[in-house]
Amino acid sequence: MRAKVKILEVETGRFMVVINEEDAKKAKLHPEDLIKIETAKRTIYGEVVISNMVGPGEIGVTKDILSTYTFSEGEIVNVAPAGTPESVRYVKKKMKGQKLKKVEIEAIVKDIVDRKLRDIEISSFVTSLEINGLDMDEIAWLTVAMAETGDMLDIDRKPIMDVHSIGGVPGNKTNILVVPIVAAAGLTIPKTSSRAITSAAGTADVMEVLAPVTHSLDEIKRIVEKIGACLVWGGALNLAPADDLTIKAERALSIDPRGLMLASIMSKKYAMGSQYVLIDIPTGEGVKVETIEEARSLAKDFIELGKRLGQYVEVAITYGGQPIGHTVGPALEAKEALETIMTGKGPGSLVEKATGLAGILLEMGGVAPAGMGKKMAKEILESGKAYEKLKEIIAEQGGDPNIKPEDIPIGDKTYTFVAQTSGYVTKIDNRAITTIARTAGAPEDKGAGIFLHVKVGEKVKEEDPLFTIHAESEARLDQAIIQARRLEPIRIEGMVLQRIGNL
Amino acid sequence: MRAKVKILEVETGRFMVVINEEDAKKAKLHPEDLIKIETAKRTIYGEVVISNMVGPGEIGVTKDILSTYTFSEGEIVNVAPAGTPESVRYVKKKMKGQKLKKVEIEAIVKDIVDRKLRDIEISSFVTSLEINGLDMDEIAWLTVAMAETGDMLDIDRKPIMDVHSIGGVPGNKTNILVVPIVAAAGLTIPKTSSRAITSAAGTADVMEVLAPVTHSLDEIKRIVEKIGACLVWGGALNLAPADDLTIKAERALSIDPRGLMLASIMSKKYAMGSQYVLIDIPTGEGVKVETIEEARSLAKDFIELGKRLGQYVEVAITYGGQPIGHTVGPALEAKEALETIMTGKGPGSLVEKATGLAGILLEMGGVAPAGMGKKMAKEILESGKAYEKLKEIIAEQGGDPNIKPEDIPIGDKTYTFVAQTSGYVTKIDNRAITTIARTAGAPEDKGAGIFLHVKVGEKVKEEDPLFTIHAESEARLDQAIIQARRLEPIRIEGMVLQRIGNL
What we know:
Two copies of one chain form a homodimer.
Chain A: E1 2-7, E2 10-11, E3 16-19, H1 21-26, E4 34-38, E5 43-51, E6 58-61, H2 63-66, E7 76-81, H3 88-95, H4 102-113, H5 119-132, H6 136-148, E8 161-165, H7 175-184, E9 189-193, H8 203-210, H9 217-227, E10 229-233, H10 242-253, H11 258-271, E11 276-283, H12 292-309, E12 312-319, E13 327-328, H13 330-343, H14 348-364, H15 373-383, H16 385-396, E14 413-418, E15 423-428, H17 430-439, E16 449-452, E17 459-460, E18 465-471, H18 474-487, E19 490-493
Parallel strand pairs in A: 1-6, 3-5, 8-11, 9-10, 11-12
Antiparallel strand pairs in A: 1-7, 3-6, 4-5, 4-7, 13-16, 14-18, 15-17, 15-19, 16-18
Helix pairs in contact in A: 3-5, 4-6, 5-10, 6-11, 6-12, 7-14, 7-16, 8-13, 11-12, 14-15, 17-18
Organism (chains A, B): Thermococcus aggregans
GO cellular component, one term (chains A, B): cytosol
Catalytic activity (chains A, B): UMP + phosphate = alpha-D-ribose 1,5-bisphosphate + uracil; CMP + phosphate = cytosine + alpha-D-ribose 1,5-bisphosphate; AMP + phosphate = alpha-D-ribose 1,5-bisphosphate + adenine
């Protein structure tokens, strides 16, 4: 049937298409039926919603669709029911535990991106992967298919470096330092990052305090070809778009099938044209990877996958047992990162980790001799060259390169928890810190977060400050205080941890 | 947050709740977030849609929700985000291949019915069942949980009989005859049926040609206590409501995990209070169960499950290699069933199957001696007593008991396919017949369908009519003709099927 497009100010999270009751009856369409909308140039898929908010002969297109495709009010399109996509058969094949072929994986990924597969089919695919797994062939095919169904970047500067931290450790503003250090040494590093999903701040959220992070691929190409680096939000780009849709299912089920995780990360590096990739796996209690064995096995897979993609991959297993530095939350972290890069001095955990990772990249990229990378990275940081490069990045991305740490607004509703007893800090609970910071408003409220006055191993006296919660509103501060009382994120114990008496 | 209900004329297939953009921002709600709407009496769950078609402080409730719950325009409710339901952990447990506990299965079913689990979680559960299965304990718990989360019927007449055909064979109007025969013998049989999902006519679609089939549980109780039988649409009742939601996922994935299939069928029998249940498993090419071995294994499971539910179950494995009788499609089937029950004579396949099944039920219910059921069923059919009972059912359900076969309107746009050659009918393809009948408009167009002039084994001469397509519109007739030419549903061969010459 022919229909006239009506733009609807409705956001559903899905590709939904609204049809008049009368038209639906005539065309025998029911809610949730998959239909295709054909124009001269393209075919897009969506599911039926029936409502008289559109008239007969009209078809309502929601904002979700318009975020990816352009339609104009009154445009004439063809609407037809869409059958069951062929790729459902391949999802079933994986359900049966069979190995998929390259073309089958490509079909699944393409149909996910085209929205021909929806929550039901994607969830079934993700569940089947969690149960039956993927081998390295399948993971490599999946990675390339995910990259190639999205946009890809071709930067005219080689070699291209990249760094990626597997999430989980709070306060991880490390890459805000790593990228400028690496670029200051003459290497190219077009870094894309994510916003926080379950954490208190993603690298993109932190960077956004210093400069805009939403740029087109063309702008990124221009920036990186000019100054060798960027620190942008990957979500604004159409990189491996299938990933967002599988992640939705993974998050709802709180599963993270390894093959899909590998493909998700590496497809974006592949799309960015990265040739040398450093994967940082923070390891410790309360982060994604809790044991060294697990980290090693994952590292092996990253390296093997890199080989198949023609990328040289190294992995750094880093200490993730407590937050990095003293701050958690976008503005607090941006401030700490900026102070550290400006002065060349900062919390040991942050400086050590940043120069350690940057050093590996300098060696991978061939600008530092083997074993000398970290020293060189430290020199670049301390010399102020890294800060100069960060200023260039901030300027090119449209921020104020002369921003000072004291310019960064921090949530002014605060509450400080103090030690109830003297002793040693034996644990800072990553998950609890994240939960409290999020309750205080992070990452949406950029000024919200936590400042840690102490780190693990330090000695404290009764009444010493332990941590301060920052919030932008009293209401959120109060909620965060309640959470913090319940979770007790910092543990203090005497040197004698347990006393065994007369048994 | 407090909000004022606004009723929206929107049908999405899901429980969706519309929130104003400003409110969503304030409450940090995103599209697809799960929220709860609380009133003094109940809490219901739905997912967020963001749109300015409701104002700030308003919450839009869609027709899907109103089909189950009552809200009035302007009613004040409380709206709050809902966390991840506990039962997701049990879905994950099944993903890992572990046996679920009774309480865990109950939690999953309850959360499905409450819409706290949505497509993603339900699909993951169904996929996990397809891969990892359920044992008989789990199936029994699932069956009872599905029944008890819906309405249940308590009929004051014992014993209560029931009959159910596993779908798949076209033209299966058998139960329109079985139910009146059984009730005419004094037994109680409150039969609920489904509408066609993938077939050309469900029993409810066929019965609806003769009388209304949409009744409340109270009306059904009244009718069955008065005349011992009904033939109603189960979908109008709130029987095992979790089933509709799992079936949606199963259909999209075209899977049918056995444990879920058993629970789906038996939960409805359990909810209807059935004590003696006959399961008809049509077996043959192109139906759900293709081999006798498979049918036997399924039969064993039905009987075992019945034991655990306190039901006595028998199974009839019936011939399903071609359509039952000569007609496929609601009105054509209703006409054939009515003619057969009025005269006591009809197509062999229909009369044999109906009296066979009814006979087993008469023996199960103790009104016919062992081995005498079929004879008794035949006598009841031929004596006109079954017809009298059907008239009572039609009258009680609000139809015209004096309806005659010739009163039933059949699609008057017709096209007859004739034999291209002389020979024997060696095959009538069930799937092809269903596809053609559906293309002609069945089941929505009640008059659409197929009349078969021949059945398997019959001899035909060139130009003899094979089958006639009936449709209500020329357009649909044309489409069905094209389908029929492509599918060639009836195969005619000489007695010599293959000639092997000089090799």
